[in-house]
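Can you make up a polypeptide sequence alongside its tokenized fold?
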Amino acid sequence: MRGAVFENLVVAEILKSRMHRGMKSDLCFYRDQSGREVDVLVDDPLEPTLIEIKSTRTVVPESARSLEEVARVVGKGELAPQALRRVLVYAGDESREVGGVEHVPWHGASRILAGA
């Protein structure tokens, strides 16, 4: 249950932040027929974003695998996979970028899509 509760907390924080700023609450879950999925897909024409949420305090390379897989599939249309912003929210405390994926601590989740 920890993972589901953590995921719900992060999505609620992102939505709350966007709504308080008068932004659309245009978040959705992505899953295709092959089982590839990410927790949040934001179909924003200016900054399309994929977000994966992990309740772990330590991130390993496999944590971002679904972001890369979905970026390749979604990016086959008009966008190159590199044009998709990829964000991994986790239970740690450190912000960093690894291999083109932003690692954001849970307490910074409200700023991911808020334009802040």
User: Anything to note?
Assistant: Residues 31 and 37 are 4 Å apart (CA to CA).
